[in-house]
Structure formats: structure tokens, C-alpha cells
């Protein structure tokens, strides 16, 4: 009811203010006159966006709502031109960019909330976005945030479940679904798809100069930008990659010939001094990795690996680091798709070379993640891997110590976001090295600046889990390092989760030898399961699992382990969410030391 009373008035206000700033701007009027009109128009648009989403049950039944939606397409073109005309004025340019982005957000919101109301706008949306993003018409007019919104709008139309008919078309009951399917079919012709595929790979996938500058100045930041979870919502390259994957999944038969031709043209070696050629090859290899599952029957990856890819990893020119990083990433994408077990030793050897200290940090991290993919595989053979374990584990440990970003340390652990909770514990690292039978006298552990990287830690944790007791001769350096890492991660609870997970696998692998770690283990279990500590919200489940694993691998219970049970009663009163783990821990105490525990 409120919307019915307000919408027409606000729509007219938006129209008049928009026409006012366009007219004054075109007439060469002072910006002091133009800017207030522009700002009022922008504010009116914000309100209209909220009203059309929250004020209508079926926007298509409102004449004003439909009129508003239709006018958006013209306004987008006008605003891009207006921005271009006034780009010398930073304030006007900024407002104009926000305005253009807001217009695309209105389209996206209506599509997501009222997909069938959006039927009549599917074709105009695809026409407009393709015109600006995939043709030369957009050169000089579009900007990154606008491009991201356009690409995400295309993807939203592609993936909208209401627009997808049944596999047997005749079984689709809703005619609106069939209409949407017909519109998409008419738009996404083979020629249009080929053009979009070429543009995505040869233009949007290319590393830019600012990407390479970040690579050089902040390699860990570069890795985090590449691997970010939902960065496709606001960052250009992840956005283009997710659209490419969606297009390839929907129109596989039309796009495979296009991509295969690009692969053939990029197959020959590139001169390390040919920077553009290197970037083009990187983009094509990126596409092949993203579409790996779709290309299963079209690429003989084993032959490609042995005849070409493995040789490209050996080119040590500085410029070729881009290809080394992309090739090892590409292999990681294909290990679970089509990669023969007989070639895995060659891959392990290649990863050892790429993890060396003199190699580029980004390449090293990519090699670590590929190792994780190769180990996390149904056909993984632990016996085949064991000869390489000592060297690989040592190189990963060195990489872990060098990492400064919390997210990086988690990936060689686990990639998580950061949360600040000031809790820490102290312990002596002297007893930790004695927990395993290996000489660690040459191991020097120095505190890192910043927090340790869960990416690397996750790789090591996963490796420990897979090889089990085989980790015993090689665990001492990591066991000695984790206490200082725990101290440094006081403000990073998600990193501490990764440390807890790693310790669970380490205790399982060390078995009774883990008793030498008890001082450290008991301290962090106490913090993780103490309901008076704010960090227990993040650490509780992993802390309980470590507690149980520690008990299961203990032969000689002691007072500190028994006193830890003081944390249990508040946990039982807290909720039933972790009741099973709590009861398992209680049972473990009863079995391990019944008389001491019950007394």
C-alpha cells in the first residue's frame, strides 16, 4: 500500500531530476547546478530499487514498475556517456559510476526476486550487456565495477533455475519457463558464444600490469586475490572465470571446438621475451583448467603432460614464472579428472623443484596446492608417494615459515577469513621436539612477522592425515614450530582452527609418541573448550576433537589431563550441539583411567 502511494511520485521525481542534470550537463552549465540534480536522481533511484523489490508481489502487474524497468536500459547508456564526458571531474565521475552500477543492481535484484516478472527483460539485458562488454562499442565507456555487474547479470540469467526446462522439454509444465528457454536459445547462438569465449579468454583472462605489480610486491596478497571464495561478486577476473565455467557447462558442444582451436594455437613453446605470448598462453591454460571436467573426452592430458607441460616447468626464465605457475595449477585441476598414476612420480619430482627456496613464492604456493589435489585423489598410492615425503614435507615446512599472511598459512593449512580474539597460551618447545624420534638440533625456529598461513598448513595437515604413521620420522620440525604459530595467531581464530585440525592428524599419526606434546596440547584444548573464552565460539568443535584424539592416543594419564575435565560440565550445560563428542570424551576417560577419573 505504501509503495502504491509513493512509487508514481518517486518515479516522476527520478525522471525529472535525471532529465535536469542531463540537460544542464549537455548545455555546459556549471557543475554546481549539475551535481545536486545528479545526487537527487541517484537518491531517488536508491529508493525505487528498494520499493520495486519489497513493495510489489508481482512487479509485472504494475504499469509504473514496468515503465521503470524499461527506462533503466536507456539510462544505463546515457549514464556511461555522461560519465565519459565528465571523467575529468573526480566527484562527478564517482557519482556517475555509482549511478551506473546501481542501475544494473536493480536489474539483478528483480531477476533474483521475481524471475518470471523479468521475462520481458531477458533479451534487453543480454543485448545491452553483450553490446558493452563483448563488443568494441564498450571501449572507453565501461569501467571495472560496471563490467563485473554486467557479467554477473549474464550468469544469473544463465543459471536461473526458473529458466531451465526439464531434460525432456515436453515435460516442462510452466510455459514461462519455456519462453525464457526460447529467449536464451535465440540469443546464445554459436557465433555469439564463440565471440564471448574468445573475448573472455583473450581479453578478460589476461593478467594485467597491476596484477603483475601485486605479484612482485605482495605475492601472498596476489594468491589470496586469485583464490578468494566469493570474489566473483566484486572482482573482475574471478567474475569472468565463473561466467566462463557457467557458459561452458550450458553450451559445451558449441564452445569445445573454440577452446580446442585456441589450445592448438598456444601449444608451441613461447619465447620468454614474448610477454604478450606468455600472457595469452597463461589465459588459454587457465581456460583449459577451468573447463577440465567438460574436456575429459577431448584432451589427452597424459600425452600433453609428458610431451609439453613437464618441459615448460623446466624453463627458468623470470618471465616464464607466469607459465610455471599456470602449468602446475593446470595439472592440479586435471589430477582428479584424467591423470594416470604412472605419471605421479614425475609430478612429485616437478613439485619438489617448484617448492625450492629460490623459486618464485607464487609458483611455490601453486605447487603446494597441486600437491594437495594430487594427494586428495581416489587413485592416490601412499607407497608411491612415501619416497618423496621427507623432501616435500621439509620444503612445505620452509614455505610455511616464510608465509606472512594469515590466509596463506591456512592454505598450506586451510583458507579462512580472519577473526580477532586475544587469547593465547605459552608452552615450552623443548619437550615438543622430544616427542618424536628425530634429531632436531639443526632446526631453528624464529618467529614470523604476521600470522602463519593456513593454506600451507592445510596442505601439510592433509598430507599428515593421508600418510598416517608414515609421518612419524618427519613431524618434529612442525611439532616444534606450532606453539610459536599458535602464539602469533591470537587474533586469527580461523588460523587457530587450522592448527587444531593439523594437530588432530598429527596426534593420530604419532600415536603414543604424541604424549611428548601433552603440555602444548592440553593448554590449547583448555583454551578452545573454555566457555568463558570468547574464542570458544570458533574453536570448540575442533578443540573437542583434539581432546578426544589426545585421549585415544594416551597410555599414561596424568593430573593435567584429568584436570582438563573441569571444562566439561559447562559444555554439557551449554547446548546439545556437541553432546556426542562430549560423551565420547567422558567415555574415553572412563576407559583410560576409571579409578582416577571416578574418584
From TrEMBL:
Residues 424-435 have a biased composition (Low complexity). Residues 414-435 are annotated as: Disordered. Residues 497-599 form the Importin-7/11-like TPR repeats domain. InterPro entries: ARM-like (IPR011989), ARM-type_fold (IPR016024), TPR_IPO7/11-like (IPR058669). GO terms for biological process: protein import into nucleus. One of its GO terms (cellular component) is cytosol. This is Importin-11-like. The gene is Ipo11-L.
